[in-house]
Amino acid sequence: MSTVRKGDIIFHGAYQETYAISVVTDDVISTSDGNDYKVNTKYHFLSTPLKMRTIRGWLKSNYSRYSAFDKWGGCKQLYLSSLSLNQAKYILSNIFEIEKDSKTKKFLKDLLNDITSDDQDSDEDINEIDTIIDKEKDTPMPSWKGIPSIQVLQTSSITEVIKPKRNKTTSARALKIANYECENDHDSKRVFLRKNGINYTEPHHLIPLSKFRDFEIDNTGKYRAIDIEENIVSLCSYCHNLFHYGKMEDKMPILEKLYKDRKDGLKEAGINISFDQLKNYYM
Fold it and tell me: Is residue 37 part of a domain?
């Protein structure tokens, strides 16, 4: 409970059903005696609760060690536990499909968009990055800044979820630093040319933006920036999609290579992360 922060999403369930979703409206509060904690949340009750047994098979196949579900796909008997991002997306998608109330359904759609857009670029994002690349193609080669900075945050006006504010120029410069090559395979035959003649590669945040809360600075409510060039790798479309949709055993060699290439740069930017921690983000 003590780690809950404003903007977090909470799934509420009982008797093997998820019946509500809420967004935390304030940071955790300690009670007057100092022995307990409480959080204020904005509830969204579902017209049709999701019966968790209907997705138990998927949860079993997508087990995450530290989440609210056991390795058989059942709900753990805990007061408050975490969910992996993939689990949250899948549960939300299933709730969205069965929800009858139009207002709640819109909230769910916006919520899905909020948590999905953190780690994947939309077509609009790619077009904006392409425009920046074209505009800056004749500028000097940028470099890693090598200094810690604070992550800029934004609050969704609809869902009230807090998330990092992405800087498309930072993504474009990260691609330029990598010379528009796939950092997994510099000789990749899967890289094609943009309309301006520059190699087409895509920016991928090695530490997913959705994990920004893991880099809080001394319980201040401020977070070490991870939307930085040091954390953005250049990948061909194939390798990028592999990270988002592929099997773990296929991701692992690429993830290990990129971690070794980036860990020192991340450390200079104030981000200390072990490979085991990074690997867990992709489970």
Answer: yes
pLDDT of residue 159: 80
**SS3 per-residue string spanning the chain:** CCCCCCCCEEEEEECCEEEEEEEECCCCEECCCCCCEECCEEEEEEEEEEEHHHHHHHHHHCCCCCECECCCCCECCCCCCECCHHHHHHHHHHHHHHCCCHHHHHHHHHHHHHHHHCCCCCHHHHHHHHHHHHHCCCCCCCCCCCCCCECCEEECCCCCCEEECCCHHHHHHHHHHCCCCCCCCCCCCCCCECCCCCECCEEEECCCHHHHHHHECCCCCCEECCCCHHHEEEECHHHHHHHHHCCHHHHHHHHHHHHHHHHHHHHHCCCCCCHHHHHHHCC
Does residue 96 sit in the same domain as residue 145? no
Name residues of the chain where pLDDT drops below 70: 1-2, 32, 34-35, 116-120
Q: Are residues 87 and 160 in the same domain?
A: no
Residue 13 lies in domain: 9-117
